[in-house]
């Protein structure tokens, strides 16, 4: 009895979806076939965003995975008429990062086991590692907004215009904030 009702409700909903797609352009439900291409395109950007926020290593990988898992589970809620897929995915990534920092409060891990590629001397690797740790320490001292903007700009490689769409700030405001932030980082270096 209950199963028959569910089947009838689902059958009634299928024409409604078709009607919505015809009457409201831009409404789209992500298909599984599109997902692989979107995943391959967006994975490096999302991972780099987390690398700038939490450093290299398992935390960045875990948060990247959590972002794509949340996006996959909520794919039926994505609407093209409201935002592009990358905008939607970045919003999810920012929320995942916020949740991570709320849970852990103390930011720690840096990749301790860096592979030594052939040709590089241990001294240069030590200098690179020291510079990376120093930069991450300086970035950690920045206010949340500035850390977020640095991660979006340099981690994900977004333009100021794209960052403005994600944050709600003006494009010129983002440029000014980033310029001042980089100046402050250079001064503290």
Structure description:
The chain is mainly alpha-helical and 189 residues long. Residues 1-11 and 13-30 have low confidence and may be disordered. Helix 2 crosses helix 6. The chain has eight helices and no strands. Helix content is 74%, strand content 0%. The protein is globular and about 50 Å long.
Q: How many strands, which pairing sense, and closed or not: the largest β-sheet?
A: none
Secondary structure tally, helices: 8
Mean pLDDT, rounded to whole units? Answer: 77
Could you tell me how far the N terminus lies from the C terminus, measured between alpha carbons in angstroms? Answer: 71 Å
Q: How would you summarize this macromolecular structure in one to three sentences?
A:
The protein is mainly α and 189 residues long. It is 74% helix and 0% strand. α3 (58-73) crosses α4 (85-104).
How do the helices and strands line up, and which of them pair or pack?
Layout: H1 2-23, H2 32-54, H3 58-73, H4 85-104, H5 122-141, H6 144-155, H7 160-167, H8 171-188
Helix pairs in contact: 2-3, 2-4, 2-6, 3-4, 7-8
Defining traits:
mainly alpha, disordered N terminus, 189 residues
